[in-house]
What does this fold into?
Amino acid sequence: MASIIIKTQVNNAVEIVFDLSRSIDLHTITTAHTGEKAVAGRMQGLIEQGEEVIWRAKHLFKLREFTSRITAMERPVYFKDEMQKGDFKKFSHEHFFEKNEAGTLMTDKILLESPYGIIGKMADAVFLKNYIRRLLLQRNDIIKQYAESDSWKKILNNP
It folds into this structure.
């Protein structure tokens, strides 16, 4: 099983960063280069505990679907999404939000495991872990851009 941990400092309140991170609308913006969009379940707004979303996107030269459910949430400090159906054997993403003097420290912890035994473990190590890391870094950079400008108001519908 591969793990990824990324920490991102964001200069805004923990509640805003938390809500941006669970926004279906902002997720679609952060993954526009893959054509990712919600096709079933929660398709816009803020996803809540117990809700699912089915994402469709082109990753690694193939159109894929990934069903994710929010399995835990403690607003505004934590939520966890886990794959219910998709190409991985296991995929979980924990999101932590910690208020600090500069705003919010956002920490992402991902555990992923590919199917296919030893071949899957090699794929995880050789390229999949880095591919997911790059996607997450890009996503976090866009969350940071929105949070640190007035753009967050458009996503969270705050005038």
Notes: Residues 117-147 form the longest helix (31 residues). The beta strands are 2-10, 37-41, 52-59, 62-74, 78-85, 90-100, 103-113. The chain is about 35% helix and 40% strand.
